[in-house]
Amino acid sequence: MAEAGAGFLEQLKSCIVWSWTYLWTVWFFLVLFLVYILRVPLRINDNLSTVSMFLNTLTPKFYVALTGTSSLISGLILKPEKS
User: 48: closest CA among 31, 61, 65, 35?
Assistant: First the structure.
């Protein structure tokens, strides 16, 4: 009897795993479909070109400042404790 219960649980687990994978796949394709449908109202191409233009205008000085600030903050957060 215990073997039948274990077999049932394995079948149930297999069914849940399969359905979960199937639902994620359906969700992924639904999101892709919505992005495709809404590409004109969202003006994705215009937004991507604007972001690309903005990133091209950043100077090396900005990257140096960003790296320095990041290092400073990391040093403050990861400051070793004195024992």
Answer: 35
| Angstrom distance (rounded) from CA 25 to CA 18 | 11
The residue type found at 27 is: W
Which phi and psi angles does 44 have, rounded to 5°?
-60, -40
Tens digit of pLDDT for each residue in 33-79?
A: 998 888 787 787 788 888 889 888 888 898 899 999 999 898 888 87
What 3-state DSSP class applies to 81?
Answer: coil
- The pTM of the full predicted model, rounded to 2 decimals, is 0.42
Q: Is the dihedral of CA 45, 50, 55, 57 positive or negative?
A: positive
